[in-house]
Amino acid sequence: MSQCSYALLSVVVCLLTLARIVFYDMTAAMDTGISPSASKDSDSLYPIAILIDELRNEDVQLRLNSIRKLSTIALALGPERTRTELIPFLTDTIYDEDEVLLALGEQLGNFTHLVGGPEYVSCLLSPLESLATVEETVVREKAVESLRTLADKHSVIGLLPEHRHAGCSVSFIQEFRLPLFRNLCKDDTPMVRRAAASKFGEFAKVVELDNFKQDLMTAFVELASDDHDSVRLLLVEGCVTVAELLRPENCDPLRPVIIRLAEDKSWRVRYMVADKFTDIQKAVGPEAMCTELSNAFIALLKDVEAEVRSAAASRVIEFCKNLPEASRENLIFNQVLPCVKDLVNDVNQHVKTSLASVIMGMAPLLGREKTVEHLLPMYLMLLKDETAEVRLNIISSLDKINEVIGVNQLANSLLPAIVDLAEDVKWRVRLAIIEYMPLLARQLAQQFFDEKLLEYCINWLSDHVYAIREAATNNLKELVGKFGVQWAERAVFPKVLALASQSNYLQRLTCLNCITVLAPVCGSEATAKHLLPTVLKLATDPIANVRFNVAKTLKSIAPIFDPAVVQNEIKPTILKLLEDGDDDVRFFAEEAKNIYLLTSVKVKKHPRVCIVKNIDAYFSKFCAFERVVCCQMCHCRLQMLYPNFCLMLSNNQQRIIMATN
């Protein structure tokens, strides 16, 4: 049937339904002697009449809006008329745009209370069943979701009233649905078998164990041997649920299935088995981990496909933890470690990245001596890998090996490799190590960090590559946040301030950049005491680039200072820079001046407000446009200092009022 025919049929059904409703209303009115126009039933018909009219509209958005208002319309009609009129009407008009049908499926899932409660929920099944058979996948999925919502919230008697006489016992329901699901697992259409495989685990959870063994285990084995790899792929996740359902003592029939899937010809199936292997391992239990299952995982570590090796490598530590304690050490040394050594040298960077993210966790399993003997060489190789993610994964997990071998051994083994990378001739390698320093700081003690790594953090500030100097500046900010201001005053400030005396102006600029970054972390007191004098001193530097960076620094650190510091120490420097002979210096000094405009205005305090006096006289030297700009700049400054600040302009006069606590 063509789309036009569907549309005509829909219109006819709508008209017939409307006529039937109107006829019912007129008959009721005649029986009671009340005119149709005055009857209350006629008033109650208005919402559904509007619904029908909007559902017939050519505008999809109007039809969609009407569907979204179904709950309101059903509430106005009442439960009985919703069941007898609205639901049949919706059932007869399931021919529309997918977006409308999707909204309808979502609405019907919440209609239980609108049709009169759980005992009447069966009337919702018909429209949802129709929606579950449409062509669009998202509509079917939403309809099935709503059907599951109804099934979860209500008794089977309400859903299947025709079987009320059978008492709807558990055995009856099992017999009712098990044959259906078995048939779906054997369906000729691969799409149906895929759906059955994807839901096999969920279905198995609600089936009694005896029924599963008798009826579903055969279907499970058949799906595991299906011709289509997409069916076998979706069944892997169900293996976990089936293993949990059977329990370790009954998992013997499941082992051949797992092994066959782990050796599947499709790499996607093997990938899924590798990804879910440890979950299956936990479900079957350590005692059921026979040699065949262990060998299956080892084979996945050696798989020809990089994606499979990567998935297996990411699960290797969890696999080792789940092995039986009696044979764990033997299996790790004889089977797992040789594979891990090969993966360390894998040609694929994703494999090494996955391995590096977990390999440090093997140290607690092997102990100190064997970690030093077997694992440290692999850690060193990964730490020197050219892939940044590999190095990051090793450095971010140093705490795990630190707990096993101790700080001294760590300093003698891994840290020399880190130091070598810190001095690498390739600036990108040095940059990568700088980015990892905060991670190292979080895992190492402060004293140990000062002795071994602080020197490199300071030396990077004098690197000939700007990107290194910039990264080193941000690195110091992270370190101060970790170790505190007192540590910065002792270990960082003297080295940073020493750069201000260097003959190379780039190092003096680095000093200013460090102060700009560190000031917000260190606070106003430490900044005013240790850092600000150096900034003010550099305002007389012979290099113009240094002087205008002084203006930029003063502008950046302004919000952390008290007004008194700004007025007495910073303002004279800004005024001096305003008279500089270099255009760029004056430009940035002018920008900095706008931040400190407010400091030259006298303030008279009041118990509740502070009113700035003589503001008009202060702004009188500017034109109207400049006065507005200055007022706005003051507004920005005050907002940074006082959250409750507000700016008022009235009677062509600028007046600044600041609320105080």
Automatic annotation (TrEMBL):
Q: Name one GO molecular function term.
A: protein phosphatase regulator activity
Q: Which UniProt keywords apply?
A: Repeat
Query: Gene3D superfamilies, alphabetically?
Result: Leucine-rich Repeat Variant
Provide the residue intervals of the HEAT repeats: 47-85, 177-215, 216-254, 254-292, 336-374, 375-413, 414-452, 531-569
The reply to whether S-adenosyl-L-methionine figures as a keyword in the UniProt entry is no
Any Pfam family: HEAT
Q: Name one GO cellular component term.
A: nucleus
Q: Domain of life here?
A: Eukaryota
List each copy of the Phosphatase PP2A regulatory subunit A/Splicing factor 3B subunit 1-like HEAT repeat domain by range. 287-367, 371-434
Signal sequence bounds: none
Q: Output the PANTHER family linked to this UniProt entry.
A: PROTEIN PHOSPHATASE 2 (FORMERLY 2A), REGULATORY SUBUNIT A, BETA ISOFORM-RELATED, SERINE/THREONINE-PROTEIN PHOSPHATASE PP2A 65 KDA REGULATORY SUBUNIT
* Similarity remark: Belongs to the phosphatase 2A regulatory subunit A family.
Q: What is this protein called?
A: Serine/threonine-protein phosphatase 2A 65 kDa regulatory subunit A alpha isoform
The species this protein belongs to is Trichinella murrelli
Gene that encodes it: PPP2R1A
